[in-house]
Amino acid sequence: MTLVAAAYTVALRYTRTTAEELYFATTAVCITEVIKLLLSVALLAKETGSFGRFKASLSEHVLGSPKELMKLSVPSLVYAVQNNMAFLALSNLDAAVYQVTYQLKIPCTALCTVLMLNRTLSKLQWISVFMLCGGVTLVQWKPVQATKVVVEQNPLLGFGAIAIAVLCSGFAGVYFEKVLKSSDTSLWVRNIQMYLSGIVVTLAGAYLSDGAEIKHKGFFYGYTYYVWFVIFLASVGGLYTSVVVKYTDNIMKGFSAAAAIVLSTIASVILFGLQITLTFALGALLVCISIYLYGLPRQDTTSIQQGETASKERIIGV
Length: 318
Description:
Layout: H1 2-18, H2 25-48, H3 51-63, H4 66-92, H5 95-102, H6 105-117, H7 123-139, H8 155-181, H9 187-217, H10 225-247, H11 250-272, H12 278-295, H13 301-317
Helix pairs in contact: 1-10, 1-11, 2-3, 2-9, 2-10, 4-8, 4-9, 6-7, 6-8, 7-11, 7-12, 11-12
């Protein structure tokens, strides 16, 4: 997942900075949802093994389960709110302030995991989560540049929007994880249910945001082979993310995303001549240390002591 996400980031930057006719990002997001849906359908067909079982699975869990579709529409809607709140926050906060505060989504996800899934994290894991938050902030840090353009901002509105975006990010990810792990329903069925609502949400967002220009220039304006490659990487990355959430958790997904940021920045140094800064090096070091600390096995010292006591008693008895 980390390598795919890093490749996606680098390819996305290339298409957004070198294209002569810039494509609509909103339509690309919508097409990504469509491709993820098609890939999930293909993987479900492979998993079921026969057309009869494949058709029965779709009929039972998708076409015949409007309640399940509504359940999986929740993360799609919440992610849409998150993206809009993030844009509103960026419009009303300095870039540096936005960059730091938005990383609170990492500990927020950990908190949602504890509250919604009744899990516990060790002190070392909590330390690694906040260390990751700081590391990602430093990796993405860019010095504030003076500008002559005066933009009217509302910091109170910006902080309110960033708080909502952070909460949405944590809630949506953990909610999807809870739905995935609360039943034996196939992962690909769950993906199909979510991507169906995702297509509706992103299509509506595309026309609300760029409707006039899309009607004038066309839905696929500016698309090249590179753009389609970026969309494909985003689609594969989305499927990998669902697999990571299914078999690990959302906190581990955050660590994978952080590692992808570091790798994509290193790739940008090679491909685009980006200069490595001291803050990036320090941030990358913190990310690596936090990943290592979070992955350390948790030891239950009480059970170890009890085991040692039992063994000593057996020795004494002998």
